[in-house]
Design brief:
It is built from 10 helices and 6 strands, in the order βαααααβαβαβαβαβα. It has a 6-stranded parallel β-sheet with strand order 3-2-1-4-5-6, with helices on both faces. The protein is globular. The longest helix is centred in the middle third of the chain and has 19 residues, at 63-81. By secondary structure, the chain is α/β, with parallel strands linked by helices.
């Protein structure tokens, strides 16, 4: 049986773009630098690793308080306006389900927030396994989350696709020995990431065209 594992933010949902906008708004309100480079370095990491990164590298930056407020604003906006679903996401998930693929989600987001997003979008039904950032010891770029997803699906990593948008996510899936498909969202792929990916594709529609010809 064919198997595939998706990242969530920036792959299925346009939540990375929303998060970036909210961070910029909050930085402007607080008259702080935007911290773009630091935040991009943490894209794809789970909450624990991101907090540790800021505590080590930017100890004077109130990351925990700022991130808590950013998350509150994001959930408020999503509940008000709905989940911004990536073009082609539901059609791809429906097609995979119809073709009897095994499908998992491997996201650095917490279980509570992940289920909120999936329930709001109606996507829960498409996943045979859901692994979140607070269910593992080591977040992306460590391969643990993707290895765990493959174990849950009982599939071989070398025969399983991973769909990612971030540097940390691509590195995580690649280190797990998977067939990486990168669909860039907010950050363009480096040459290093292109070498790790089996393909760099412009959209989820292109992923569907590749896998379900």
């Amino acid at each position: 049986m064919n198997s595939i594992v998706f990242d969530m933010d920036g792959v299925l949902f346009a939540t990375e773009a929303l998060s970036d906008r909210l961070w910029k708004e909050m930085m402007a309100e607080a008259n702080m630098p935007e911290m773009v480079t630091a935040l991009q370095q943490c894209r794809g990491r789970n909450r624990t690793d991101t907090r540790a990164f800021f505590a080590k590298n930017y100890p004077d930056f109130p990351y925990v308080d700022m991130e808590t407020e950013k998350r509150r604003r994001m959930l408020t906006e999503l509940d008000k306006h709905g989940m911004p679903v990536m073009k082609g996401a539901e059609a791809l998930l429906q097609a995979l389900q119809a073709a009897n693929w095994q499908v998992a989600l491997a996201t650095s987001t917490s279980l509570k927030t992940t289920m909120h997003h999936l329930e709001l979008s109606g996507f829960v039904q498409y996943f045979d396994a859901i692994i979140t950032g607070d269910q593992i010891a080591h977040g992306k770029p460590h391969p643990e989350i993707y290895r765990t997803a493959c174990e849950k699906l009982q599939c071989c990593p070398a025969e399983t696709y991973a769909v990612e948008d971030s540097e940390n996510g691509v590195k995580s899936a690649y280190a797990a020995g998977m067939r990486v498909l990168m669909v860039p969202d907010q950050v363009a792929p480096t040459e290093e990431l292109r070498q790790m990916a089996e393909a760099v594709l412009p959209s989820l529609e292109a992923v569907q065209a590749l896998l379900l010809r």
